[in-house]
Structure formats: C-alpha cells, structure tokens
Amino acid sequence: MKFQLIISIVAVCLSQGLAAQKNWKDTSKLVIPEFKYKFNASGSHYIKATAVAQMWARYSEMNPGSKIYDTPVNNYGDIGIRRLRFSVWTQLTDRIFFYTQFGQNNFNFLSKRNTGAFFHDAITEFKVAPQLHIGAGLTGWSGLSRYASPAVGSILGTDVPLYEQVTNGVTDQFLRKLSVYAKGQIGQLDYRIALSSPMSAQNSLVTIPAISTDANFSMAAPKLQSQAYLYWQFFDKENNTLPYTTGTYLGKKKILNLGAGFIHQKDAMWYLNSVGDTTSSDMLLLGVDVFLDMPVSKNGGAITAYVAFNEFDLGPNYVRNVGVMNPATGTGINATFDGAGVAFPMIGTGQTVFTQVGYKFKDGLLGENGTLQPYASVQYSQLKKLYDPMILFEGGVNWLIHGTHSGKISLNYQSRPIFEANTSGEYVQTARKGMMVLQYQIAL
Hints:
CATH architecture: Beta Barrel
Number of domains: 1
CATH topology: Porin
Order of helices and strands: HEEEEEEEEEEEEEEEEEEEEEEE
Number of strands: 23
Helix content: under 10%
Strand content: over 45%
Number of helices: 1
Radius of gyration: 22 Å
Shape: globular
C-alpha cells in the first residue's frame, strides 16, 4: 500500500506541475553548447569538458532482517547522489589523445563525509592509423558486453544492467581497469581489446569471505586479464572516441549492432575441493548482445531495444549480492541469502539473459514541456548456487524535459527476489521486494 500511495503522490505532483505550466511557455529552449576550445581552425585539435549529475530520492522495501547500525528496518526512504562526474579530454595533435574523468558515486546518508571522489579514468592514447589506436592507463576500454562500459548520461533507465560489470569494485575501480588497449573501426566492425592488471582483492570494496567450498576471488597475486568486445554496425556508426556506449540515442541515429566479447583471467578464483585442498580456477566471462535504436516516425517517435546473453564461470557456486547505494549496514535475525538492504544475487556462475526496451513518444508530446519515454527490462539468471532462477523486473518512464538527456526526470520501479534455504538446503525464492527511485539528471 505504501508503494501505491507514493506512486499516486508522485503522479499527482507531476500532473499538477505540467498543468500549471500550460499557460507558461519556456521561450529559452535549452540549447547547451559544447564546452570545447579549438586549438586550430579546423577544430581537429581541441579540449572538451562534460559533466553529469544524477540525484536519487528513493523508497525501499528492505530485505528481511535488515538493520541500519542497531536499528531494525522494514522500509526506508533516502536521498543520495547516484553519480556525479566531470570529464575532460583533448586531442592535442592528430595522433595524441588524453582523457580523464573525476567524480563520485553512491553518496548517501551512510557515506563517510569529506571523502569519496576519485579518478574514474586517466588515459593517454596514440593513433597508429585511422583503424588502430593504442592507449594505456585507468580505463573503461574493456571486454564482454555493451554495458560493461556504459555512457551513464544516456542510459535508458535509472541504471544499466550492472551484472555486466562483473568485477566492479572487487578487482577494478568502479569497472575501470589498469590496462593497455587497442581500439578502432575497420569498416562496419568496431573492436576493443585490452590486457589488464587486476587490482588486488585485498582492497576490494566488497567483503570477500574466507576460502570455502564456494569459489570467490583469490587472495593470491593476481595474474593478467585479457578481454575483448567487438560489434558489427549494420547501419549508422557509433562514435568510439571514448569507451562508453550510449544507452539510447532518442531516435537521432539508426543503429543495429551485433556484438560479442569475453574476459579471461587465469587463477582468478579459489576454493576448497572435496578433500579440503586449496584449488584455483580461471574466470571466464562470455557474452553476445544486440542493440537497436532507431526512429519509427517522422515526428520523433523512436524505439530502443537491447538483448544480451551471458555465461559466467567464476568457479563453483560463486554468487555476489549487489545493492546499489545500499541503505542498510547489516542484518540481524531473520536475515536471508540476499543480505542487507536492497541487495540481491545479481552476479554469479551460470547463465543470464537480459532484455530491455523503451519507446520515446513524439517530440513535443507535452508541448513546451518535452516528451516521455517509458521503458521496461528483465534480468533472468540461472545461477549454479540457486535452485530457482533469479528474475529481476524493472520499469519506468523518463520525462525528457527538453527532449534530450540534458535534463530529465525518471521514475523507476524495481522488483527483486528474496532467496532462503529450504529444508533440503536449496536456495529458493520465497518473496519479492520492491524499490522505487525518482531521479533528476542534468548532463552537460
């Protein structure tokens, strides 16, 4: 009932706000020029800056047994900064390129004050030929799938399929890795390959338990990681200056891409075998996906769709519970397999199918107040550790205030499963919990 009440309040507020603006026109249509300074007359040498901010107001049904420090909580509302990013890149010469990104993620009432911002990216790149660029540094040029490196300012929902960022915070820095990479486009083929130095699991942002019969990331010195992602562009080509892939072009391009990728690291995982000996195993992540984004009408209507299939081998029974900007600190009595707060078994050894679709209504659907873009997604994971499949549902709507990503308000609802062990020791789904997010984004 609380969720229905909140939905009703939000809907009334939005409708009243739009109604109040019927007699008021915003004649200063939002047109944000690029923050770009040209070094030469042609503009081929330049320095450019961008920024994005995503603010969340959220109401969550908490997992059973959740606590905020010593306080048991069943439901909770919070406000947070999901992402705040500043990027600068420069094409110094025809061949020399530099990029860096600085910002913060997941800052809420539990976060430590006066800390948290860090460099997401810092790379130098050299153009060997138009079809081949090589670079090195802390970077999102990585393998596996499209949204292993997403452009967060253009995502369709309030979040991307985060399961594709398998080692996020464990052996990388918020999906970025210390790498040497090559990338480019050969005809319709876009490719990226990288050799990465994984960060130590000892400094993981995720608590890694003591070694057991269930695999987890090894505490031994990490070996190099190889990865690649390639996709064929059937229609328009996407820009590959930066590693981050667009979530929706809002019908401004005609895109149909078929991609495939992998990530491999030798002896990345460890566990105890049947006789109690420490055993190492490789991490092998595979993926194929299809991305579609194109106009369907002359008045601005557009469809966006994405389908991915992934197979992850992270050793026997590996599972990672993930709770974005988690509003809980731990669990007490009645705790379930999912853990605290809004976490659920998102990533693990097994297979996953993800699908997402959105539709942008015509330009000017709301007159001077922009247009709407409803969307929905499903993640279906059959993980070795779990008896029942993990099924995550999400849906919502973007209010594109000026018809672009520059200013938008998104309302998103997520339904996640709760798992508990039955009398046979099998982890089965016993309930579902929900989370509602109201996001305001500004992107420059």
